Amino acid sequence: MQGYSCRTGARVDVVWPVGYSSRFVPALELLDEQGHVVGREGDLIIGWCRTADTPQGVPIRVEADHLRPRGWEPGDDEPHSHE
User: Fold this and answer.
1) What is the arithmetic mean of pLDDT over 42-52?
2) So what's the pLDDT on residue 6?
3) What is the pTM of this model?
4) Number of structural domains, the chain?
5) How far apart are CA 50 and CA 23, in angstroms?
6) Which of 33, 68, 30, 19 is nearest to 47 (CA)?
7) Residue 36 located in a structural domain
8) How high is the pLDDT of residue 78?
9) Which residues, 6 or more positions from 20, have their beta carbon under 8 angstroms from its beta carbon?
10) Per-residue pLDDT reduced to its tens digit, 8-43
């Protein structure tokens, strides 16, 4: 799966935990290993940082608790549930 850096616009490859899957209904949804929706197209991914020392092409591992809804700002409530 891939996303784009909000700072540079560069493509960033992401890796999800084993057992995660996705579907289009019609927009993209990310499902955890039990089939619960944990993310949707347009959600923000926080909690990781790519530095100048990070080689290009190295994917970022993302966990469900790194996802925030579109428009989320620091200081907002805890992560949301899509259920």
Assistant:
1) 71
2) 55
3) 0.62
4) 1
5) 27
6) 68
7) yes
8) 58
9) 30, 31, 32, 33, 38
10) 666 667 788 889 999 999 988 989 999 999 888 888
Residue with tokens 């850096």: 5
Share of the chain above pLDDT 90, in %: 16
Three-state SS at 26: coil
Provide the b/e sequence for 50-65 (b: ≥16 CB within 10 Å). eeeeeeeeeebebebe
Query: Is residue 44 classed as helix, strand or coil in its secondary structure?
Result: strand
For residue 16, count CB atoms less than 10 angstroms from its CB and return exposed for 0-12, middle for 13-18, buried for 19 or more. buried
**77 lies in some domain:** no
**Residue 44 vs residue 26, higher pLDDT:** 26
Q: Does 82 reside within a domain?
A: no
